[in-house]
Amino acid sequence: MTRTRPALFAALALACALPAAAQTQAVKREEVGNRITENVPAIPAELIERLNRYQNVRGASVAGWTQDGCVLISTRFAETSQAHRVCQPLGMREQITFYNEPVSGVTLAPAKSGRNGFVFGKDVGGNEFSQLHWYDLATREVTMLTDGKRNQNGGALFSSDGKRLAYSSTARNGTDTDIWLLDTATRQAKPLVTEGGNWSASDFSPDGSRLLVTKYVSANEAYPGEVDLASGKLTLFPVDGGKASFGGFEFAPDGKAVYFVSDEPVDGQPSEFQSLRYHDPASGKFEVLTKNIPWDVDGFEISDDGKHLAYITNEDGIYKLTVLSLPGHKPIKLPELPLGLIGGLRFSPDGRRIAVTLNTATSPNDVYVIDLADAKLTRWTHSEVGGLDTSGFVSPTLVRFPTFDQVDGKPRTIPAFYYKPAQSAAGGKHPVIIDIHGGPEGQSFPAFDPYTQFMLKQLGIAVLVPNVRGSSGYGKSYLKLDNAEKREDSVKDIGALLDWIAKQPELDASRVGVTGGSYGGYMVLASLLHYSDRIKAGVDVVGISDFTTFLNNTESYRRDLRRAEYGDERIPEMKAVFDRISPLKNAGKIRSPLFVAQGKNDPRVPYTEAEQIVKAVRGNGQPVWFMMFNDEGHGFRKKSNNDYFDAATILFWQQHLLGRKD
Q1: CATH number of the domain enclosing 447
Q2: Can you tell me which residues the record assigns to a coiled coil (predicted)?
Q3: Which of 99, 299, 465, 535 is 20 to 30 Å from 586 at the Cα level?
Q4: How confident is the model over 611-655, as pLDDT tens digits?
Q5: What does the pLDDT look like over 394-403, one tens digit per residue?
Q6: Number of helical H runs and strand E runs in the chain
Q7: Residue 651 is part of which domain span?
């Protein structure tokens, strides 16, 4: 993707306004295979050796059940995550797919459909133009189902008889995400919903005659509806309050009622969180099943036999699982699960078991199976942790720090997960890294991260992972606090966290680094812009450096979705806000060492965002390391690339945060 002319002129104008010495800063550039680096020193062999075991940690995530009672999982044994089959607890992992690119979106055909296989998505070099493929487990043959062109396809959904496959695609015009319908016998596909915008399929009715669909506008706005497949007629459902967000949407086993997740008002009263609801239009019966849980429902699943519904609640960054018996909605007894994150939720074909992915702060993803009859938990995978002693891993504590504004007359508090090294700091105080999530509607969780554990144990660095305003999981009012012209209020939260760090006797406020990816990368640049006197160094990964150039250059199918969150650069008042808060246009205020890393094929935040901020900050006379992988996109999914980036980042912290030159 080429740089836009306005962005190029802006960078040139900045360079021309600076002293000649700043303009001619030496750049050491190297190209090795698909990797480009500038000013990144050689990685010491000793550091690579220390990191090796942490980089050989693996995880396993559940994708579903095969017809023969095996569990299909995603795990990595070489460069990328691929599909594997496990047929008994802690049994052999049989690799099913073998690609240089990671496999994603694995969707198994329903057991009663008679189709023995699964659909998966695969792109090229992280460009996210995923094509759908059918894998036949009987013949081990793979067939591409989509056209293989420059379009995005995903969200595959089978009808219960397996005769139809619904999926989302940008194939029609490259901008709108339509819903397509594929006949699995003839493999002929046609667009079904072409209303414009971003659409996805949610669920087929049990008889296969109707399809629940949703139009996504933003994290705060979506519109559900139903398509009659015989006529193609789309009927949108009324949205209480006029605008609301929606999560899952599925037919009840009888095909008449529906279960869905929404933050619509209830009885005229606003709802802060997304709750699980049941509605039978024929009888008018309506029930909020999680009305006594003041947290978001993050997902739910209904068993094929129609006897159970499982759902997950996100309670202050910790996931909790509940299973209800149907149709009475009574919770059933479950085994005690580790405190952490829960994903997957895949019922076995007979409905008697449910496979889940469990993750804690001290253990990577692994697959467990719950027997619903006797509430028994059985571990099905045991992923490697590089031979490390997991008893030395650190779990975080949840802290809340006061920020600049108030709620009901009291200081607003911001949640953060605090990882404190087990060993006391040699100098009495630990250096600190603030790790900011992307999104911005994302949320940081106390998930396992071997890189964090390395910094804690090997470098003695404390890690703080905040959920600044605009994060999901804390109610829709909190989610909206950074929208449009309020964008920099989230940056002020980082300033408040710096204040909090200065008050902690065990933390060294003179040695603070900040890191983040995507929108978190913007937060890194914005934090350096405002707090370079208090932040020693920053690492920006695939980050936004100017919202106007970002919106102009991001892929067209994402542009309106991002405008709904960040604001519309075509509106002069919003453009003025973007100019005011732009790290690119304020690069002269960034006075701390910076490391910028990027994937060349990134369709979300184009690589020009990285190039222009690197050039501008170097023009400011500041040291900048730059790294780009030509075979990656929005993040680094290949093990060798990610390993090299991690090692370079550790070296950057050693030199610019810890003050070491080795």
Answers
A1: 3.40.50.1820
A2: none
A3: 465
A4: 999 999 999 889 999 999 999 999 999 999 999 999 999 999 999
A5: 999 999 999 9
A6: 12, 38
A7: 28-54+430-656
